[in-house]
Design brief:
Number of helices: 29
Largest sheet: 6 strands, mixed
Bound molecules: manganese (II) ion
Helix content: 40-55%
Number of strands: 21
Structural class: alpha+beta
Strand content: 15-25%
Distance between the termini: 137 Å
Length: 714
């Protein structure tokens, strides 16, 4: 309680009675909540929030920040929750405490610089109110100050994180005091030996420097006083250890080279005085050319303002001088936090709250704007700071701790596609902070996102209604298009297959057709690939019966190439494609040869035919054919019969043909002499056996003399 009484006194210096009373209520609640908790050092836990609040009180932060600082660990470490804080102290305090808890909950352990940068952005993106960051920085500062009570391994981890994350954020917000302390403490715990050596060097060299520093201080002070600027403060400035260490590493210079630079700071009452003081010191010592910088006219991005110059000091010693006003000094040390001291609401506030939407940031920006007034494009300036402070992105963790940045409003589907297209295409569900969540959830910074995939999962067209990034949307569209294509291909193939099988082709015949035939089919159909053909059929751009016609034509020509693969079996049902030569009239049972005639199909010859030798001169047109086992139909064959020339003989023969189930197709008479006639018939028979039976039967007829199978027609 004594510790708090002390803080309370400090608060009363700049806050109203009423505000301090509210802070006391917050303290009592925190004290109660942490009642039985102890820090590593053994002290009661409440000492920590009180010290965090004290750091902020030192910078004169507003009463809400102080209340939130006192309560900052309650949601995380005690049974209190956000709702209870809200009921007791209202929305604003609950939001602040909750914001700090969220930052406490995210952990950073990557060593990559790019990831550290993302982590810093993540912290800023998670923060709706910049005071959350300031409280968090104060929390970290007190933890660093009390780090010695933690075990060494923890010290190392926390120090590294402080150097990687917290010091740069403090720098970004212009909070130089925080930055310097973060870096010196981090340096001390991370590299204890280097820290001690460097510290000893600085301590030793300080003795030698003292005289020169006081000489210069005095000279500048006197020069200022002579022109009536006696209210100015001049002081020698020591570089802090970590910045010396960084300089040594960067320049690879010796320690004495770096320590031999003497720094001075001149604090003047008004901005105009800065330039007057500059003229004086330039008059006093010769300036080093090219080293003058006017950060008053053009402030640094974090709001820092000063005039910087380098001089050739007494005995040629290099001197660096910073000149600034008291308020510039405040901003240089406390950055954004300094602006709670300078709350003068101006015209510009409307513009700021419109464009930024964060009142607290607005006030800070207003401060920057006041500074910025003379430099022209202030809106551009605001925009830059806004982008830097509140990136329009969300930063989320992968399950392995990598940080990915996505645009504001992105969903787990966008996350999945950002990781890998395959992950996106196969994602079925997601876990956000280890809880199953809808894929349409809008992601928030600091969340851990895990995508659950399945090898048979497919993108859902419904994702297009919530997926945000261009990459995701184009990936989904591409997949859907490909999918529609492959489905239409399957359908198209089935359609054309059905037609082909109805024409007697085997199922899937196109899969077995040799490449050159495919090529021909494609060129006949004027299309580049079978896939494309199936696709067009599937999509209804071509009619499958028409396509099948073209394919069949080519397939039937295919007979040609099957010469080597085995005989073509003649079934007798081939129709117009197969004809039987009328020079030899082959019938089943005869040895035969196929002869291909362009535009007509195959003509089947009897092996004995006199034309066969002619055909064989063009082996490419000769096709190995054989009679199939179960032949249907009848085949024409000529028969020559020598008969005794007497009445009624034709009738007898006709009866005999009928008796033998052989139709007469044609008949001719070749007169020989008066007594005998030669009759030529073309009859239709089943096969050689059938013909043999017929011949045998005719030989038994008395009027029939000689009877032979003829070779040609008449
Ligand atoms: Mn804490």
């Amino acid at each position: 309680m004594f510790q708090y009484t002390d803080l309370r006194e400090k608060l009363s210096e700049y806050l109203t009675q009423e505000q301090v009373e509210q802070i006391t209520q917050a303290y009592l609640m925190a004290e109660q909540a942490h009642q039985h908790q102890k820090r590593f050092s053994g002290e009661p836990y409440i000492t920590h929030p009180i010290e965090v609040a004290r750091i902020l009180a030192h910078m004169h932060l507003d009463y809400q920040s102080i209340m939130a600082a006192l309560l900052h660990d309650t949601i995380e470490d005690t049974s209190l929750d956000k709702l209870e804080i809200k009921q007791q102290f209202g929305d604003k305090i609950a939001e602040l405490v909750d914001g700090v808890s969220k930052l406490t909950n995210i952990h950073f352990d990557s060593k990559e610089e790019a990831q550290a940068e993302n982590f810093r952005k993540m912290m800023l993106a998670m923060t709706q109110d910049i005071r959350v960051i300031i409280i968090k920085l104060a929390d970290r500062l007190h933890n660093m100050r009390t780090l010695s009570s933690l075990p060494p391994s923890k010290r190392q981890r926390i120090s590294l994180e402080t150097l990687d994350i917290y010091a740069p954020i403090a720098h970004r917000l212009g909070m130089n005091n925080f930055k310097v302390e973060f870096e010196d403490l981090g340096f001390m715990y991370l590299y204890p030996l280097r820290y001690r050596v460097l510290k000893e060097w600085v301590r030793k060299s300080r003795g030698n420097r003292k005289t020169l520093v006081s000489t210069v201080e005095k000279a500048i002070q006197e020069a200022l006083a002579q022109t009536g600027m006696s209210h100015c403060i001049v002081r020698g400035r020591e570089k802090y250890l970590y910045s010396l260490y960084k300089k040594m590493r960067k320049k690879r210079g010796s320690l004495s080279d770096i320590l031999d630079i003497y720094g001075f700071r001149i604090i003047v009452p008004e901005e105009g005085d800065c330039y007057r003081a500059l003229g004086l010191v330039h008059n006093l010592y010769r300036p080093v050319s090219g080293r003058f910088k006017d950060y008053i006219a053009i402030p640094k991005a974090n709001g820092y303002q000063s005039l910087h110059t380098s001089l050739h000091g007494p005995f040629g010693v290099p001197i660096e001088v910073q000149i600034r006003t008291k308020s510039m000094e405040q901003i240089a040390e406390n950055g954004i936090a300094a602006h709670w001291n300078y709350k003068d609401k101006g015209l510009i506030e409307e513009v700021i709250s419109d464009s930024v939407g964060h009142l607290r940031t607005g006030e800070w920006l207003q401060g920057l704007l006041d500074i910025q007034e003379n430099t022209g494009d202030s809106l551009e300036f605001i925009k830059n700071i806004k982008i830097d402070l509140y990136p329009e992105a969300v930063y989320v963790f992968t399950p392995t701790g990598k940080i990915l940045s996505l645009p504001q409003g992105a969903t787990p589907v966008d996350f999945a596609y950002l990781v890998h297209t395959d992950i996106g295409n196969h994602c079925i569900a997601c876990k956000i902070n280890r809880k199953l969540s809808p894929l349409s959830t809008r992601l928030e910074s600091g969340q851990i996102v895990e995508i659950i995939t399945s090898s048979c999962a497919q993108p859902n067209p419904a994702w297009l209604s919530f997926a945000l990034t261009g990459k995701t949307r184009s990936n989904i569209r591409h997949w859907l298009k490909t999918q529609q294509r492959s489905e239409s291909r399957v359908l198209g193939k089935r359609l054309v297959d059905t037609v082909l099988t109805s024409y007697g082709q085997l199922e899937g015949v196109l899969d077995q057709v040799p490449p050159e035939k495919i090529k021909q089919i494609l060129s006949d159909l004027k299309i580049e690939s079978l896939e494309a053909l199936y696709e067009e059929i599937g999509l209804g751009k071509r009619l499958s019966p028409l396509v099948a016609q073209v394919i069949l034509k080519v397939l039937e020509d295919n007979v040609e190439s099957e010469q080597d693969t085995g005989p073509l079996y003649i079934k007798g049902t081939e129709g117009l494609i197969v004809t039987y030569a009328d020079c030899c009239y082959p019938i089943p049972g005869d040895l035969i040869l196929g002869h291909l005639i362009e535009g007509q199909g195959i003509t089947v010859h009897n092996e004995q035919c006199i034309k066969v030798s002619q055909c064989r001169k063009h082996p490419l047109n000769c096709i190995n054919v054989q009679w199939a086992d179960n032949i249907e139909g009848e085949f024409q064959v000529p028969i020559e019969i020598e008969v005794v020339n007497e009445r009624g003989v034709l009738g007898i023969l006709a009866n005999a043909f009928a008796e033998m189930n052989a139709d007469i197709v044609n008949v001719g008479v070749d007169e020989r002499d008066g007594a005998h006639n030669m009759l030529k018939f073309i009859i239709s028979v089943k096969d050689r056996a059938h013909l043999a039976k017929i011949l045998k039967r005719f030989r038994s007829i008395s009027t029939v003399g000689k009877i032979i199978r003829g070779k040609t027609a008449f």
